[in-house]
Specification:
58% of the residues lie in helices and 15% in strands. By secondary structure, it is an alpha+beta fold. It has three domains: 83 residues; 31 residues; 31 residues, no CATH class. The strands form three sheets. Strands 5-6-7 form a three-stranded antiparallel sheet, with no helix packed on it. Strands 1-2 form a two-stranded antiparallel ribbon. The protein has a two-stranded antiparallel ribbon with strand order 3-4. The longest helix has 56 residues.
């Protein structure tokens, strides 16, 4: 029985010319025919599993080989080249662009920190309490104690 490639599985058994069937009489032995069909299904299932396993393992093997080759290149070629350059201190210096970006981020951090302190001071002095209600995700001033009146006032925004 020849194995032929099909579109949905890697290989399939071609049982169109089964020795257990005579085209003129029909099936010779139904039990034998069921056994052949069961074996055919098992073999197709096995080939499907093998095909999926290979498809899953090929990218993993490729990545494993690439990482190993990169590691080997780094240890055998790249590091000796860097060490032979002589001036490792200049390689470790921060570039002007990176230094500028770092200073901008530090300034942004301090500005945000000052803004949060200012907001905190304002809300403490007015006595506002904030809460998040419902699924609208809208912040609502629940209660504000006005210093001039001394009693709570309910507001919504």
């Amino acid at each position: 029985m020849p194995l032929i490639p099909t579109s949905n599985s890697m290989f399939s058994l071609n049982l169109s010319h089964s020795p257990f069937q005579d085209p003129d009489i029909g099936s010779i032995d139904p039990q034998l025919e069921r056994q052949v069909e069961t074996i055919r299904n098992l073999v197709e299932s096995y080939f499907g599993i093998v095909s999926k396993t290979i498809r899953d393992s090929v990218p993993k093997c490729i990545m494993f080989m690439m990482v190993n080759q990169l590691q080997e290149y780094m240890t055998s070629d790249l590091l000796p080249t860097i060490y032979s350059a002589g001036d490792q201190d200049s390689l470790m210096e921060e570039s002007q662009e990176a230094s500028r970006r770092r200073e901008e981020m530090v300034n942004m951090y301090h500005t945000c920190k000052d803004a949060l302190n200012l907001i905190s001071d304002v809300s403490t002095k007015t006595g506002e309490r904030w809460a998040l209600f419902g699924t609208t995700r809208a912040w609502v001033v629940v209660e504000t104690v006005l210093p001039t009146h001394g009693y709570p006032v309910w507001w919504e925004w």
